[in-house]
Amino acid sequence: MTNQNTTTKPNQVSRDVVIVGGGLAGLPLALALSAHGVSVSVIDVLDPLSATDAAFDGRISSIALASSRMLQHLDVWADLAAHAQPIADIVVTDGKVREGASPFFLHFDHEEIGDEPLGYMIENRYLRIALLKAVSRAIEKGEPLELLAPAKVSSLNLDSTQPVVSLVDGRELVADLCVAADGRGSMVRDWAGFKTIGWDYDQLGIVTTVEHALPHEGVAQELFLPSGPFAILPMVGNRSSLVWTEKSELGRAIMGLDDVRFAQECEARFGSYLGKVTPVGPRWSYPLSLQLAQDYVKPGVALIGDAAHGIHPLAGQGLNLGLRDVAALAQVVVEAKRLGLGMGQMNVLERYQTWRRFDNVSLALVCDGLNRLFSNDIGPLRFVRDLGLGLVNKVAPARKLFMRHAGGTVGELPKLMQGREI
Amino acid sequence: MSPQATTTGSHANNSDQTGRTTIDPEDVARFSAIAEEWWDPLGKFRPLHKFNPTRLAFIREQLCSHFNRDQSLARPLEGLSLLDIGCGGGLLSEPMCRMGADVTGADASENNIKTAKVHAEQQKLTINYRSIPAEMLVEQNERFNIIINMEVMEHVADLPHFVTSCANLLAPGGVMLCATLNRTFKSLGLAVIGAEYILRWLPVGTHQWSQFIKPDELTGHLNNAGLSVGEFTGVTYNPISDRWSLSKDTAVNYMTIATKPD
Question: A341: phi > 0 → left, psi -120 to 50 → alpha, else beta; which?
Fold first, then answer.
């Protein structure tokens, strides 16, 4: 921080870090930084109340074990625990509609790697509510944190020594570091001139909640159907969230079905293991694409979460990658601040990029590859991949590695992901 | 900075923030360019930038423990005066200022001081930069709680006299952090031949190996000046991870802390 910490213009305030985007990556970063004395402003275009409304985001996120440790450390978990469904097992199968699963399947049982669950399933809106509550508590405690929402950013100026973020209402924020946490369509990323690569999957992700007669026992099912992966993710109670990947055209048709027909289509894919299935609540659909930023940092700017990497949702890893970005960037920035180094300097930020980019890109490509391998009905390929699933299932070390990946405990873990103080 | 960045034009350069400068305006442009070079972490001074976090972590920990300050504070050195001898472009002075110390940076080179001043003003840091040798500060009866004496002693002509001057600049109960190069075959190979001739990290002729200082020689000089000497810590470079770290190996770069009695 600057020595005087004064404002240079009447409408200008000075912060250590400005985060554009108060979503599921931006808010945890703000909490992690302010808890360590780094002053933060978070800017979000939406009114916080509307973003927690049930109609705003129907998605459910898997929170890997390591991510849950960080949320505990950031004082967010207490408000989440009642809404978190532990994942005991993950079952992966290759199948066809109305034929059920092939005899080859993968079974990940958490008891093989320890007595903790592999992770939790939590509805996004509960995550938002819990994060906003934690932000309010942090502000009450006097932590150097403010949430400017609803507020819109009009420009980012990187020509002076420090980045300057201008708001539509005329306010200006000067910071050592501006973080882009504004999602896939990140404006900050584009203004700062970061390039992205990627492609469309020509698939639609359909999300909805179903009730079922029989309990799910905490089992997450990943069924690879010819048109794309079909995930049945356990929620609290006798409910599950469907993440149904479908070719775009067919997906749009399914979105248009009435409730009875939609329920029939669900049952054709579910099989009978959960008993009678009843769709409840609205259906959402999201076009699926891969989008990777080539760089994550420039002097004074860093990308996190979906602004840096939008991946296929089949492994439920998108948010976990974002939270790992949060933990790594928070550690790098807090350590730089303690050492009196400029928090937006490249030697500081490069450490974050090196730490996270390889992990993010490799997982993005694994998901891309799995999607390509399974989203078809080519006979020989089917035989080979079923054999592959069977083999992985037979080889305990491979299975354990997959599970640790799902739990997010592979690689050099940032301190927050180990539940430790920075 | 970034050529792709958008420009709003409201304060597109630094000169509007350097209105209080004591430097000739014509010099500002020139020294801004030099400052940019000093402070480019990927540029000419990359080795120093790489090295900096390791020695800053050491300095911070030693000072917090000596002055009984809370390590978790952002500005643990608030209220302590600090002299950075041979401050160059301010690579240590600025972080020490951000840690809360009241910093004076001294360098024999007028150009270095101008460069450091320009950069500190860009960063809105208040640092008292002075182009003055340590001996002159003694004559002016200056006293500091902390002296940072890093990568300087191996360039000094009369080491015992220099160390005595430093000791005289310390307030009672004050501490001096020293870093220098050991005179060993390993340091000849790594710090001179390796860093200057092979890796080209430093200009050839930066270091005279014969002027390097063995830890027991330094202990002798510091004791003669009335200071007691703490443990010696080595700083070693791992070429594979491209990282510096603290170690027990003091054969090349090493650091220590010397304290003045109350």
Answer: beta
**DSSP 3-state of B62:** helix
**CB distance from A160 to chain B under 8 Å?**
yes
Query: Which residues of A fall within a CB distance of 8 Å from B58?
Result: none
Query: A177-187 as b/e, with b when 16 or more CB fall inside 10 Å?
Result: bbbbbbbbebb
> In this structure, are residues B242 and B50 in contact, taking their beta carbons and an 8 Å threshold?
yes
DSSP-based three-state secondary structure for A166: strand
Q: What is the pTM of this model?
A: 0.83
Last residue of a domain, one of A227, A255, A288: A288
Domain residues for the domain of A184 are: 12-82+121-198+290-380+412-418
Chain B residue numbers touching A2 (CB-CB < 8 A): 123-125
pLDDT of residue A311: 84
- CA nearest B33: which of B115, B128, B104, B101? B115
What pLDDT is attached to residue A344? Answer: 94
Please check whether residues A150 and A78 belong to one and the same domain: yes
Distance in Å, alpha carbon of B42 to nearest chain A alpha carbon = 7
- The C-alpha atoms of residue A205 and residue A173 are separated, in whole angstroms, by 37
Q: How far is CA A265 from CA A139, A254, A259, in A?
A: 48, 8, 10
Is the link from the previous residue into A150 a cis peptide, with omega within 30 of 0? yes
Residue B117 burial (10 A CB sphere; 0-12, 13-18, 19+): buried
Q: With contacts defined as CB-CB under 8 Å, which chain B residues touch A176?
A: none
Residues A326-358 have pLDDT tens digits of: 999 999 999 999 999 999 999 899 989 988 888
Domain B22-182+213-259 CATH superfamily: Vaccinia Virus protein VP39 (3.40.50.150)
Q: What are phi and psi of A49, to 5 degrees?
A: -65, -40
Question: What six digits make up the tokens of A104?
Answer: 């080859």
Candidates A191, A301, A339; nearest CB to B95 = A339
Question: What is the interface pTM, i.e. ipTM, of the complex?
Answer: 0.80
A164–B1: do the CB atoms touch at under 8 Å? no
The pLDDT tens digits of the residues spanning A85-101 come to 999 888 887 766 655 55
Mean pLDDT to the nearest integer, B220-225? 97
Q: Which residues of B touch A157 (CB under 8 A)?
A: 5-8, 10-12
Sheet holding B253-259, edge to edge: B128-130, B102-106, B81-85, B144-150, B170-181, B253-259, B228-238, B243-247
Beta-carbon contacts of A283 under 8 Å, excluding residues fewer than 6 positions away, are: A58, A206, A207, A208, A255, A262
Residue from B82, B98, B146 whose CB has the most chain A CBs within 10 Å, to mutate: B98
Mark yes or no for CB contact A1/B74 under 8 Å.
yes
Residue with tokens 């992990």: A359
Give dist(CA A95, CA A375) in Å, integer. 11
